[in-house]
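Example 9 (inverse folding). The structure is encoded as follows.
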């Protein structure tokens, strides 16, 4: 119940913070099956969607640029990285593939991110145990929301114990999607 109330508050805050949209909007998944479906295997990966091919899901439009920026900011905040260290590696429909330097071995860590309304959901990828590569949207996971505040993206994490953490990340210049 508290989670639903917090989500409502986050949605109201996001709607109040929304200005004009930029570029062409991104369409959110149409149904719950699309929301919970596992990510496509590499052989099933869709071609990156173009801005022109996407349509509006609501008046509060999510553009490809905003999708990439919000996902980069969220992963940077969650994994304590700079936004510049997080790279967009590609798109699978409206799911963003990201990577950043691994803190210990010098390799790269990877994750996927998607946005529905003000909520951001992510999952680690490239791990040896497939059970660890789940979407972070269970009751034991923080609920993550984002809002744009001028030249910054505000990422708020609502933890299961009711505490919150908020961080601001600059909207980074968009790099070409690989």
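The amino acid assigned to each position is listed next.
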């Amino acid at each position: 119940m508290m989670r639903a109330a917090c989500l409502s508050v986050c949605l109201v805050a996001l709607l109040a913070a929304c200005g004009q949209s930029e570029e062409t909007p991104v369409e959110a998944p149409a149904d719950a099956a699309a929301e919970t479906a596992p990510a496509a295997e590499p052989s099933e990966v869709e071609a990156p969607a173009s801005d022109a091919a996407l349509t509006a899901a609501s008046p509060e439009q999510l553009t490809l640029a905003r999708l990439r920026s919000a996902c980069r900011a969220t992963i940077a905040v969650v994994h304590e990285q700079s936004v510049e260290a997080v790279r967009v590696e590609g798109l699978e429909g409206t799911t963003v593939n990201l990577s950043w330097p691994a803190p210990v071995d010098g390799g790269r860590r990877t994750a996927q991110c998607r946005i529905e309304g003000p909520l951001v959901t992510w999952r680690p990828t490239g791990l040896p145990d497939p059970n660890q590569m789940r979407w972070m949207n269970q009751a034991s996971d923080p609920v993550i929301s984002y809002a744009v505040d001028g030249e910054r993206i505000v990422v708020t994490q609502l933890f299961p114990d009711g505490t919150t953490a908020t961080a601001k990340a600059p909207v980074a210049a968009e790099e070409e999607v690989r």
